[in-house]
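Q: What does the assembled structure look like for these inputs?
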Amino acid sequence: MSPYDPSAYPPFAVTVDLVVLTVRRHALCALVVRRGEQPFQGRWALPGGFVRGEEDLAAAAARELSEETGLCAHDPAVPGAGNGAHLEQLATYGDPKRDPRMRVVSVAHLVLAPDLPAPRAGGDANSARWAPVDELLAVGDDGSAGLAFDHAQILADGVERARSKIEYSSLATAFCPPEFTVGELRRVYEAVWGVALDPRNFHRKVTGTPGFLVPAGGTTTRQGGRPAQLFRAGGATLLNPPMLRPEV
Amino acid sequence: MSPYDPSAYPPFAVTVDLVVLTVRRHALCALVVRRGEQPFQGRWALPGGFVRGEEDLAAAAARELSEETGLCAHDPAVPGAGNGAHLEQLATYGDPKRDPRMRVVSVAHLVLAPDLPAPRAGGDANSARWAPVDELLAVGDDGSAGLAFDHAQILADGVERARSKIEYSSLATAFCPPEFTVGELRRVYEAVWGVALDPRNFHRKVTGTPGFLVPAGGTTTRQGGRPAQLFRAGGATLLNPPMLRPEV
DNA sequence: CTGTTTATCGTCAGGCAGACGACTATGATC
DNA sequence: GATCATAGTCGTCTGCCTGACGATAAACAG
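A:
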């Protein structure tokens, strides 16, 4: 082989696509934008865009995220800044036929964000929305065409990553506002996994895991009922032993 | 933005790099090749190469693997064929400065293979070898320069992926020949995690997990001592509950 | 035959999770 | 204001799994 001869190999376009997940009204939702041009014109797609010349992949993802949602990603490598959205690389998709026009390799990223107001994509409220992932992934049955390109696969991979990762990490707190109650955190797990959890056992588990939650001092009744203690995410990122997802 | 205008964005070179892991003499080892040219001439690096024009990323990784080791990857999407090496995508590395010559985005793949004879890289035995990952990742101390490019980071990520993934999947069997004993499987875990496991508890765990192991019918004494029953990997890919890695 | 090595079966105590009872503190409704 | 509905929080009990470890079995080396 003749390594690194640029002329010997066809150029690739490199993009980032974003799977932005949040929990709204007890459902796991993803951010989708409407395509304004061919191909797949008018269809919903994941937000994304080209990686620029002197830009790292994570930086490109953070930039796209900021452009689409105003969120400032909380890159583990750049701590402190941002309103807490979690960003991580998901996987890379490079099937030669995934884009009919040219060879595009897309590095998908996963973003977990707290519930946000309606998205603002280029100021056009009609061109971006939060949609329940169940709806986006239920293709064919109702005649809806599903997402553009291979974005249904990317979304499915992102959802599966989120579902499994909250098992053994404290990542579920990324779906919550800075201060939250145990019940709110439980509703996150229930929405992401699509199951009902026992409030008492859940409470015992999360409050009994050292470093997972730290008391924030106050209480709230925003969920109704008895006032609940407010917590902040603790420093622990790994949950050991993990929170087990109930079987089916 | 003006999507998909090829001239509007700089072209990227896309490569695949391989983290090929195996267990040799009770140590987790990785395949490295010696670089024949600048930059990093003479240094060890992960095997890899350019993705071709009409080639999927996984196909490129499988091709490079075959060229470097003769292994035929057992892609989950293409079952049956191959001598059982496991291949999966690891992560993508695209720092603008990771290659001093041009913008290269590398899609790293992880390969888990049974113990193999000495590698044959382009027929040159001196240019490829199995090296213990501890040795490859212990940089600076002994003055050795470490791996080329960002390959130390890629290797570290691959090792961490392997270490965590054998916890909750049956992937450790990918390090074993088609038929193996419980003790051989245990030595795989011990080598990958770098810990000692209790043979009795390990035996109880793996034989008690339905679908993990299926008896192959025979016995062997290739490890010495009492003959051990031979097993084959069962159909189960997920281990529930997982095999817990001992603390520290 | 004896010691060494490895495999395999059993036992026991502690920890954790699932099931679920009981009590508490708020707002809503009559 | 009494009652109800809603959520949160604390306990109890039981079964399963794990870690620690004793004991036995089946080969080989001397």
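The mean pLDDT of chain B is 88.
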